[in-house]
Amino acid sequence: MAALWRGRHRWKRTNCLHVLTRNLTGKYDYDLVVIGGGSGGLACSKEAAQLGQKVAVLDHVEPSVKGTKWGLGGTCVNVGCIPKKLMHQAALLGTAVKDAKKFGWQISEPICHDWSTMADAVQNHVRSLNWGHRVQLQDKKVKYLNIKGSLLDEHTVKGLTKAGKETILTAKNIVIATGGRPKYPTNIPGAMEHGITSDDIFWLKKSPGKTLVVGASYVALECAGFLTGIGLDTTVMVRSIALRGFDQQMAGLVTDYMEAYGTKFAWQCVPKRVDKLSSGVLQVTWMDNNTGNEHKDTYDSVLWAVGRAPETKALGLDKLGVQLDKETGKIVVGADESTSVPNIYAFGDIGEGRPELTPTAIKAGKLLARRLARHSAELMNYDSVPTTVFTPLEYGCVGLSEEEAEKRLGKDGIEVYHAFYKPLEFTVAERDASQCYLKVICERDGDQKILGLHFTGPNAGEVTQGFALAFQCGATYSHLLQTVGIHPTCAEELTKVNITKRSGLDATVTGC
Ligand SMILES: Cc1cc2nc3c(=O)[nH]c(=O)nc-3n(C[C@H](O)[C@H](O)[C@H](O)COP(=O)(O)OP(=O)(O)OC[C@H]3O[C@@H](n4cnc5c(N)ncnc54)[C@H](O)[C@@H]3O)c2cc1C
Known about the structure:
This protein is of the alpha/beta class and 512 residues long. Helices cover 32% and strands 23% of the residues. The strands form five sheets. Strands 1, 2, 3, 4, 5, 6, 7 and 17 form an eight-stranded mixed beta sheet that branches. Strands 18-19-22-21-20-23 form a six-stranded antiparallel beta sheet, with helices on both faces. A hairpin with a 4-residue loop joins strand 13 and strand 14. Helix 2 packs parallel to helix 11, helix 4 crosses helix 5 and helix 4 packs across helix 8. It is globular and about 70 Å long. The N terminus is likely disordered. The site of flavin-adenine dinucleotide has 35 residues, from helix 2, helix 3, helix 4, strand 5 and helix 11.
């Protein structure tokens, strides 16, 4: 009855709206409506459909300030992990070409990079993924609606097409997985008019040219890294520290390597204004907080990487009383991804306190779908999530930073094993390996359980992924030493690490 009443009430309210075919004998149109077709939303909707639920997923992309737009799949596929890793690969290949000469390849100079060839190839791959996602949804019988969703009540979603046509959907449960978007600073004249963000950089038709990247998050450093790697004059402007939240010794190695690689850093500097000169170049005025002096330089592009804002504005959450975190604006969620309103769930980048990573969004989405379909009660384990920063020298880690381990157990409660090693590939190529380093942070007592594992070097993501399994299983320092290495690899150095920081001995690995 309640549903029928809700149905009539809605009809009355929206009698000029297009209403999706409803099964009026059923209580709701769908078992599950997911708002947001990114990493998390797609995984959640497909899993639910496979478990027999009737599912719809809504995805809508608001063009960036610069007008960049893209297809189904969310941040990771279109403006995140995928294009970023491919452009990182483009940069790594540049270094490989230089190494290749030492290995006997005869390559005629000059070697130059063509942005539009790279961008076309990357964009074509992304489009193929957009298409793949649509096909998968169809195959798995998930109804895909390219509309912008907002909530009317805990069982009702209003969808709006680009043409302004409204659609009402009802569901037993509603899941919000709308992610976030890059922020622009609000207090810097010219920032928004003349700047771009990570929402634009991967879709530029022509090279960004000489670029100023403002910010020192992993997104900032990764973008600056690949821009430098493909030969562009690139500067990173850092207000305070790089890679906040990561182990700061490792962050220092990452930025030291980047400086040696050619990326310029303006440390402790803050931009004041951006002006477009008559020649078309952008003049940036900034303050050096160390000296108090003002500086100016010109750039072809200014890329703001100063954080991301949750996509909650259009959802109408305030009217429903869905609680948001006052500081971050993200949705406050429980361990089961529930919000403060029954039947409404949220996860992925939009969830307060959740890691902003694709694999956690995917896993959390699948587990939520299983719980909603009463298939399992398993909760997402957000501990021990490994990650990698794809800077020119990659950095992978799992577990605690040294600072955090020290905070929790005290300096005397931890033992840090570390090594500076030289990847074999760097020897013939005569590459500097000063920043290739690893450290394993362990409890000092008992079995010396591993608390954190950190690695800079080639293929850090691949290395860290393997050790993350051991970490998840509660590996100890002796497990590490019992592990037989694979020779000759960089990862094997982790199985040999034996110098403690406390000893003060030279941690440079010698011999093979
Ligand atoms: C430059 C960059 C590089 C990254 N690199 C990595 C990496 O290497 N590894 C990694 O793990 N993570 C990486 N990330 C993070 C990763 O992309 C995100 O953590 C992940 O995409 C979050 O997934 P999500 O499902 O929560 O949200 P999203 O993927 O952002 O998806 C949300 C979707 O909802 C849509 N939407 C928003 N509002 C509405 C609405 N009202 N109605 C309908 N649809 C709506 C959005 O348009 C979007 O399509 C990177 C991010 C960036 C920006």
